[in-house]
Specification:
By secondary structure, the chain is of the alpha/beta class. The chain has helices at about 1-35, 50-65, 85-90, 125-135, 140-150, 180, 190-200, 210-215, 230-235, 260-265, 270-305, 315-335, 335-360, 365-370; strands spanning about 35-45, 70-75, 95-100, 155-160, 170, 185, 200-205, 220-225, 240-245, 255-260, 310.
Length: about 375
């Protein structure tokens, strides 16, 4: 009897060891298979732009932070669908995600522009204030509500691309005040084009690749793209020599990274957090690099290409803000969600902007002391 018990005990021990061995061999393989996820994502810009570099920077950080468990296949505009069809492709699951700019979707709903930072700031906010509204003021929840409930799309969005402050634009001749500006035909797009129309301007809607040919043919007198390094890459300096900055149309403009909702849910909670962390890191790291690139580009524009970089007349900027306020008020009156987002931004800005102005010295104070402007 004792010998039988011993045999049974040995048999159970061997069986347990075998099960453990099988589990030890199987589980790492299964975990490895589950961990290697690749998301196919497309941008709304071509490879050559620094905006696309933001996309690849993000993909690299996701891969590194996840130790290779999550990888993003970055694709330029047009690789799978045309640039402005990216959102619909992500919604349908044709793409796992996209690297875009929400204001491209104002044709679907005007509130889209508010999730880019909005014309004028919005309400005087800068980039840190805008991220504060997103993460501390309820903006991120409204962002998800916009795609989920307003556009009825299966999309998750995160802010990632601070592409500003953007310059006012390029001109064939100097402008000294608002009447000079009103007499020109300018390239402008989106909600900013509506603002310029409200100001009495004639605007022409052109994609980036068509701006220079139109300028060379004399179709337009002025144009806005981004400023700095992006404008240098497109070759504005070869057509016009008068470059005005700043602008209020996209002084705080933010691009997004979007994910198909089903693709997002398939990511484990830790991978979702890695993606969020990588997006925030990309926002700041790329922005710092981009400002350095812009500084180098401004120097090249002035010293090599003899571009005159001039200050935008203040009355033009003030008139822009007045025109935008009229448009925003009309949209808020027509649409409850637009009003909800705008009031949320106004409430947050009303708290932080006056406090920040009180606590922070004006940028010009120390800047002018060490680097007095040339007369």
């Amino acid at each position: 009897m004792k010998r039988s018990v011993v045999y049974v005990g040995i048999a159970l021990l061997v069986l347990a060891m075998g099960v453990a061995l099988v589990r030890e061999v199987r589980e790492p393989r299964e975990a490895t298979a589950q961990a290697k996820i690749t998301l196919k994502m497309q941008a709304t810009w071509p490879v050559g732009l620094t905006l696309y570099d933001n996309f690849t920077f993000f993909a690299d950080r996701v891969k590194t932070l996840s130790a290779g468990r999550l990888q993003i296949e970055t694709l330029p505009a047009g690789a799978i669908v045309p640039a402005f069809e990216t959102l619909d492709a992500v919604n349908r699951g044709l793409l796992d995600g996209g690297h875009t700019w929400a204001a491209y979707w104002v044709g679907k709903h005007k509130s889209a522009v508010l999730f880019t930072g909005g014309p004028g700031g919005t309400f005087g906010m800068d980039y840190i204030d805008y991220l504060g509204w997103m993460y501390e003021g309820g903006g991120l929840e409204l962002y998800q509500e916009f795609y989920r409930d307003v556009l009825k799309m299966n999309v998750v969005a995160l802010p990632i691309l601070p592409a500003g402050p953007q310059a006012f634009g390029w001109f064939k001749k100097p402008i000294k005040d608002l009447p000079d500006f009103k007499g020109m035909k300018c390239r402008q797009t989106g909600i900013a084009a509506e603002v310029f129309k409200e100001m009495g301007m004639a605007v022409v809607n052109l994609p980036g690749g068509e701006i220079i040919p139109a300028a060379e043919r004399g179709v337009i007198d002025c144009a806005e793209w981004v400023g700095g390094i992006e404008d240098l890459k497109l070759g504005f300096q070869n057509v016009w020599k008068y470059h005005y900055t700043p602008g209020m149309h996209e002084n705080v403009t933010v691009g997004e990274v979007i994910f198909n909702g089903n693709s997002w849910k398939k990511l484990s909670p830790d991978l979702q957090e890695i993606v969020k962390a990588a997006a925030t890191e990309t926002f700041f790291r790329w922005w710092a690099r981009w400002q350095k690139q812009n500084a180098d580009a401004i120097r090249e524009l002035v010293e090599k290409h003899k571009v005159q970089i001039l200050k935008t007349p203040e009355d033009v900027l003030i008139e822009f803000l007045k025109a935008w306020d009229k448009i925003a008020a009309r949209e808020a009156e027509k649409d409850p969600f637009f009003k909800k987002v705008l009031e949320s931004q106004r409430s947050y800005a009303g708290l932080v902007v006056p406090a920040k102005r009180f606590m922070f010295p004006p940028y010009d104070f120390a800047a002018n002391y060490y680097w007095p402007p040339k007369k």
